[in-house]
Write a structure and sequence with these properties.
- By secondary structure, this protein is of the alpha/beta class.
- It contains 34 helices and 25 strands.
- It folds into four domains: 167 residues, 2-Layer Sandwich (Nucleotidyltransferase, domain 5), CATH 3.30.420; 144 residues, 3-Layer(aba) Sandwich (Rossmann fold); 178 residues; 220 residues, P-loop containing nucleotide triphosphate hydrolases (Rossmann fold, 3-Layer(aba) Sandwich), CATH 3.40.50.300.
- 48% of the residues lie in helices and 14% in strands.
- It has a seven-stranded parallel beta sheet with strand order 10-11-9-12-17-8-18, sandwiched between helices. A seven-stranded parallel beta sheet has the order 21-22-20-23-24-19-25, sandwiched between helices.
- A hairpin with an 8-residue loop joins strand 15 and strand 16.
- The N and C termini lie far apart (62 Å).
C-alpha cells in the first residue's frame, strides 16, 4: 500500500506563457502532503527582472511593488529542487507548471527534475464528469474547498492540495468493479494517475462490504433506481381565493409578492383543465408564468389522479423547472410530487453498447478518457441522460456510439435508463418533457402521451421551430466519408480487413463472398464520388459562385442534377448492404467458433450496416424524393471543398403536422398553450394560426403591472447612419462607436444583439483594435469558444463584461438583478432574406398570393424584438436600458409595430451624444 506517498502540490504565477521568450516566474507555492495531511508549505515572491504586464497584475493581484524586494529564481532554485525530490509532482495543469519550472531549472544550471507527475485537471475531469467547469475556482466552489484569492500561487496550491484529497475520497466511494475498470485503462492517461487508482483499488479490496446502492450489468456498476414515492397524501383543495393562494405560496416563498395577473392565470388554467378545453395565454415577463401553470397543474393531477404533461423548448428550461420550481411546490404542499423527466431516446446511454465498447481497443486518448468519465458517471447518474456528461469535442464521437437508438428486444431491464424514464413517467403526477420528444411521439409505436389528463405547452411559439427541426433531413459529405472510412478496403486495415483475417483463420466463408463484399464497397464509394463531383461541377457553374462570399447556399431546384447518377448511388449502397448482410449471416452460422473480441467485430459490422441503412434513407429523402411542402438546399464553404458540402431538407409549413399530433389529445383533454410572446401588433394570430389553433379560441393576454417596468428605459438613437446610404465598413465604425460609448457609460454588463454573425465579428474586431474597451471582458458568440450557456456563465462572472450575440441570445437567456445593465439592439431582428429556410417559407407564402413581408418577415422580427426586451427586466427590482441603434424603427412605417410591442414605458428618441449623456445620468442615479 502506497499510503505514505509524498505529494508536492505546486502552483506558479508568471509574466506569461513562454520562458523561451523571456517570461519569468513572479510567485511559487509548494504544499507537501503526506497521508492526505498538509505537512509543509513553502511560498515565495520571485523577481522577474522586468515589469509585470498590467493584465497579469489584474489577474493575480501581484504588482511590481510586491516583488521589488524579492530575489530572482536562481536564488531559490536549489531549495525548490531539493523540496521536490522523492515526491509526486501535482499541479492543476502540469503541462504548464512543470514545463515552466523545468525551463527555469535549466536556466539556473540545474539538471532536469525527474519524477512522476499528476494533473488534477485530468483527475477531476474523470472523477467529476458532470461538473460544468474544471477551472480551479469552479471546482473549489463545487466541492466547498476554501479559495480566498484565485490566481495567487499560495491560495491556488493549497486549494489544489485539497482538490487532490477530495479526488482520493471520491475514488474510495466508487464500486470495486468501477475501480478495476478505471485502473485497467488508466495507463494511457497523460499523467501518472494509474498509481492513485491502484492504491484505491488495494484499499477497497481490503475492506469487504456489500454494495446496496448499485445494480450490476456484467462489469458495470449502475446506480439503483430511486423508489417512487407512495401515494396516500391527503388531497388538498385548490386555493380559490387570493388569500388562500397567498397563504399557500408564503409557505414556500417567505417574501412572496402578490401579482394579481399570476393568480388570474392559475384560475384560468385550473378551470380549463377541469373543462378539458383548449386555451392560449400570453403571459408577459413579470407575471411569474412558470408558477402560474405549475400550481393549477399539480392540484388537478393530485385531485383527478391523472398526470399532466408539461413541454418546454430547451433542455436548459427543463432542468430549471426540476431544480428551482418543483422544490417550491413540494414545500408549498408539504408533500412529495412525483415528477418524471422524459427526453427523446437518443439522449440516454445504451449500456449494452457501452459494455461492448469496453471490450474493444480504444482508438485515441480522447476515447480512453471519455470511457473513464462514463464508467464513473454510470455509477452516479440517476437519469442516464448523456447531456449530464462534460466531455471534450473528441469525446462526443464516443458518446454518439453509445446513445440509445432502439428499445430492448425483450422486457425493459433494470439497467436501461430510457425504460426507467418511461416507467417513472407512468407513475408520475407531472411529466416534464421537451417539444422534440412530444413531436417524436408522432412516429413512436407505443404512444406514451395517450394516458395524460392534459398538456401545458410552455414557450409555445417555439413549437413551430421544433416541428421544423424534427422533420429536417440532412446530408453531409464528411459523414458519408467517415462511414466509408469505418469499413475500408482490405489494404486500409479497417473493419473489413479485420473480419477477413478472422474469416481466413476460422475458415468461416469462401474467398468469393469476401471479394464480392469488397467489390461492392469499391463500386459504392466510386458511385458516391462521381455523384458528388457532378454536384460540385454544377455549383461551380452557378452565377452565385462568382460572388466574393466564401460561404454560399443554393436551392437544389437551382441546379440541373442528373437524377440517374443519384439513383445509381442508392442502388449501389443497397447492393453493398446485401453483400455485407450475407457475410454477416455466414459469421452468425459459425458463431460458436468465435472468441469474445471476434463477437465485438461482428457487432461493429452490424452497427455500421445499420448506419448505412439510415444513410440510404436520408439519401433517398434528400436527392430522390421531391415533395411540395419541403425545401431542399445546399450549403458549402468554398475554402474547403468537397468537405464542407451539406444538404438540408426542411418542411416549409408544419401546421398540418402539429394538427395531426394534437387531434387525439384535443378530443379528450385540455391543451394549454403559453409563452411570454405569442402575439404581435397588427397580426395577433400569427403564432396560433401556425399551431393550427382554431380561430374561435381567444388569446388571453396577461400583462404585468406597469410598475414592474419602472426601472426600464428605452432609447432610440436617431442619428445613426442608414445602412443603405453608407458603406458597410463606415456603418460598422458607427456601430462600434455607439456600443463603446454606451458600455463605458454603464460600466459594462451589456448584451449587444446582432442579426448577422459577419457584422458581429467585424464590430468586435474593430472594438478590439481600438482598445477603447481594453479593461472590459468581451465575449462574442462564434468568436470566443464555448457553447451559449458557457458564454453566459463567463459573462456573469465579471463585473465589467460585454456579451455580443446573434439569434439564439435574443431569447431564453436569464440574467437576473444587476447582472445585466443594458441591451443594445444593433439591427432590428429581421431574418436575412437569403437565409434558405426563411426564403423557402417566403416563396411558399407568395405562391399562395400572400405578402411574405407582412405575413412572415415582420411578425417574426417583432416577436424576436419583444424577446430581446424580455432579457432586460426579470424582476420588479431590475433596472436596465434598452438601446436601439437601427433607424428603421423611426423612418419606416412598420417601425411603429416594434414600439407597440413593448410594455407601456418611457421611450426617448435622441442623437447619440445626448443619449450617452442621459444614459450616464440615469445610470448614476442608481
Amino acid at each position: 500500500m502506497n499510503e505514505s506517498q509524498k505529494y508536492a502540490i505546486v502552483d506558479i504565477e508568471t509574466t506569461g506563457h513562454s520562458p523561451a521568450n523571456g517570461d519569468r516566474m513572479i510567485q511559487i507555492a509548494i504544499v507537501i502532503m503526506q497521508d492526505w495531511q498538509v505537512v509543509k508549505t513553502y511560498t515565495k515572491f520571485i523577481h522577474p527582472g522586468k515589469k509585470i504586464p498590467l493584465f497579469i497584475q489584474d489577474l493575480t493581484n501581484i504588482t511590481d511593488d510586491d516583488v521589488k524586494d524579492a530575489l530572482p529564481f536562481e536564488a531559490y532554485a536549489d531549495y525548490i529542487y531539493e523540496l521536490l525530490q522523492d515526491t509526486v509532482f501535482v499541479a492543476h495543469n502540469t503541462d504548464f507548471d512543470l514545463a515552466f519550472l523545468q525551463a527555469e531549472f535549466t536556466r539556473a544550471g540545474l539538471s532536469k527534475w525527474h519524477g512522476k507527475k499528476m494533473d488534477t485537471v485530468e483527475l477531476a475531469k474523470i472523477l467529476f464528469p458532470m461538473s460544468l467547469s474544471y477551472k480551479l475556482g469552479d471546482l473549489a466552489s463545487d466541492l466547498k474547498i476554501p479559495l480566498e484569492s484565485a490566481h495567487r500561487a499560495d491560495d491556488d496550491a493549497l486549494a489544489t492540495a485539497y482538490l487532490l484529497k477530495s479526488c482520493w475520497e471520491e475514488l474510495l466511494t466508487l464500486p470495486l468493479v468501477t475501480l478495476e475498470q478505471l485502473h485497467k485503462r488508466s495507463f494511457r492517461l497523460r499523467s501518472n494517475l494509474a498509481q492513485l487508482f491502484f492504491d484505491a483499488l488495494v484499499l477497497k479490496r481490503s475492506k469487504i462490504s456489500i454494495d446496496i446502492d448499485h445494480v450490476f450489468f456484467n462489469k458495470l456498476a449502475i446506480r439503483k433506481m430511486a423508489p417512487t414515492p407512495k401515494n396516500g397524501d391527503e388531497i388538498v383543495p385548490y386555493p380559490q381565493t387570493t388569500d388562500d393562494k397567498l397563504l399557500l405560496l408564503q409557505k414556500a416563498i417567505p417574501n412572496f409578492e402578490v401579482r394579481p395577473q399570476q393568480f388570474k392565470m392559475m384560475d384560468s388554467i385550473y378551470e380549463k383543465l377541469n373543462a378539458k378545453e383548449e386555451h392560449v395565454i400570453e403571459a408577459s415577463t413579470g407575471i411569474g408564468k412558470t408558477l402560474g401553470y405549475l400550481v393549477p397543474a399539480i392540484f388537478y393531477a393530485k385531485q383527478t389522479n391523472q398526470k399532466i404533461g408539461i413541454s418546454t423548448y430547451t433542455s436548459h428550461l427543463l432542468d430549471q423547472l426540476l431544480q428551482n420550481e418543483i422544490p417550491v411546490l413540494e414545500q408549498m404542499l408539504g408533500q412529495r410530487i412525483k415528477v418524471a423527466l422524459l427526453k427523446g431516446m437518443n439522449h440516454y446511454v445504451d449500456l449494452e453498447k457501452f459494455e461492448k465498447q469496453l471490450k474493444s481497443l480504444d482508438e485515441s486518448y480522447d476515447e480512453t478518457f471519455t470511457i473513464l468519465q462514463t464508467l464513473i458517471w454510470v455509477a452516479k447518474t440517476e437519469t442516464g441522460d448523456l447531456n449530464e456528461l462534460n466531455v471534450s469535442g473528441g469525446g462526443q464521437l464516443l458518446l454518439d456510439k453509445i446513445r440509445k437508438t432502439a428499445l430492448p428486444k425483450t422486457t425493459m431491464p433494470l439497467y436501461d435508463f430510457y425504460s426507467r424514464a418511461i416507467q417513472n413517467s407512468r407513475q408520475a403526477d407531472i411529466v416534464v418533457t421537451n417539444h422534440a420528444m412530444l413531436l417524436s411521439d408522432l412516429v413512436r409505436h407505443e404512444q406514451i402521451f395517450n394516458s395524460f389528463g392534459g398538456f401545458i405547452i410552455d414557450e409555445a411559439h417555439q413549437f413551430i421551430q421544433a416541428a421544423i427541426n424534427q422533420d429536417e433531413k440532412i446530408f453531409s459529405y464528411t459523414n458519408w466519408k467517415y462511414l466509408f472510412g469505418q469499413i475500408g478496403n482490405y489494404e486500409d486495415e479497417g473493419l473489413y480487413y479485420k473480419l477477413c483475417k478472422v474469416a481466413y483463420k476460422k475458415h468461416i466463408t469462401n474467398q468469393q463472398t469476401l471479394k464480392q463484399v469488397e467489390k461492392r464497397f469499391k463500386q459504392m464509394v466510386q458511385g458516391f464520388d462521381e455523384a458528388i463531383a457532378l454536384l460540385y461541377n454544377d455549383v461551380k457553374k452557378h452565377p452565385k459562385n462568382a460572388m466574393k462570399q466564401q460561404k454560399m447556399s443554393l436551392f437544389l431546384t437551382e441546379l440541373a442534377l442528373p437524377q440517374e447518377a443519384f439513383e445509381k448511388v442508392a442502388s449501389l449502397v443497397q447492393q453493398w448492404l446485401d453483400a455485407a448482410k450475407s457475410l454477416h449471416a455466414q459469421f452468425l452460422h459459425d458463431v460458436n467458433e468465435l472468441a469474445p473480441e471476434h463477437h465485438y467485430l461482428l457487432e461493429q459490422w452490424q452497427y455500421w450496416m445499420d448506419e448505412f441503412t439510415i444513410k440510404l434513407s436520408e439519401w433517398d429523402d434528400v436527392f430522390l424524393r421531391h415533395e411540395d411542402h419541403y425545401s431542399c438546399w445546399l450549403e458549402l464553404d468554398k475554402r474547403s471543398l468537397p468537405g464542407s458540402i451539406q444538404l438540408f431538407k426542411k418542411p416549409v409549413d408544419v401546421t398540418e403536422m402539429i394538427g395531426k399530433l394534437f387531434a387525439p389529445i384535443r378530443e379528450k383533454n385540455a391543451v394549454i398553450w403559453t409563452s411570454g410572446t405569442l402575439t404581435v401588433p397588427n397580426n395577433e394570430r400569427f403564432i396560433t394560426n401556425q399551431l393550427g389553433i382554431d380561430a374561435s379560441i381567444a388569446i388571453e393576454k396577461l400583462q404585468a403591472d406597469p410598475s414592474y417596468y419602472a426601472g426600464a428605459q428605452v432609447y432610440i438613437v436617431e442619428d445613426m447612419p442608414d445602412i443603405q446610404t453608407v458603406s458597410q465598413s463606415d456603418y460598422i465604425e458607427e456601430v462600434a462607436n455607439a456600443i463603446t460609448h454606451a458600455v463605458r457609460m454603464t460600466e459594462g454588463r451589456s448584451f449587444v444583439l446582432f442579426t448577422s454573425q459577419e457584422m458581429l465579428r467585424q464590430t468586435v474586431d474593430l472594438i478590439n483594435e481600438s482598445e477603447l474597451l481594453s479593461e472590459y471582458m468581451l465575449f462574442a458568440q462564434g468568436v470566443t469558444g464555448g457553447s451559449r450557456m458557457r458564454l453566459l456563465k463567463s459573462f456573469q462572472k465579471f463585473n465589467h463584461s460585454v456579451l455580443f450575440g446573434t439569434n439564439s441570445f435574443w431569447e431564453g437567456v436569464d440574467v437576473p438583478g444587476d447582472g445585466l445593465a443594458t441591451v443594445i439592439v444593433v439591427r432590428l431582428p429581421f431574418s436575412a432574406p437569403e437565409e434558405p429556410s426563411f426564403k423557402a417559407r417566403s416563396e411558399h407564402l407568395q405562391k399562395q398570393g400572400m405578402n411574405a413581408f407582412a405575413e412572415l418577415a415582420l411578425p417574426e422580427a417583432v416577436l424576436r424584438f419583444k424577446q430581446g426586451f424580455g432579457r432586460l427586466i426579470r424582476s420588479s427590482q431590475d433596472r436596465g436600458a434598452f438601446i436601439v441603434l437601427d433607424r428603421r424603427i423611426e423612418t419606416k412605417s412598420y417601425g411603429e409595430q416594434f414600439i407597440e410591442s413593448l410594455p407601456p414605458i418611457s421611450i426617448q428618441k435622441l442623437p447619440l451624444h445626448s443619449m450617452v449623456q442621459q444614459l450616464g445620468n440615469w445610470y448614476n442615479e442608481r
